[in-house]
Amino acid sequence: MQRGHAGFVAVKPQGQHGDRKNDGYDKTDGTYYQVYAPENLNLNSAKAVNKLREDFAGLMEYWNDLTPVKRFFFVLNDKYKGTLPTIESDLEAIKNENKLGGCEVFLTKHLEDELFRLDDDQIIAVVGFVLNPHDIKFLDYSILNEVIAHIMNYKGNLEATQLLKAPDFNEKIKFNGLGKQTATLLNSASYQHGSVENYFLLNSDFTKQELRDTINTMYLAALKKSLRWLKT
Question: Is the pTM higher than 0.90?
Answer without folding.
Answer: no
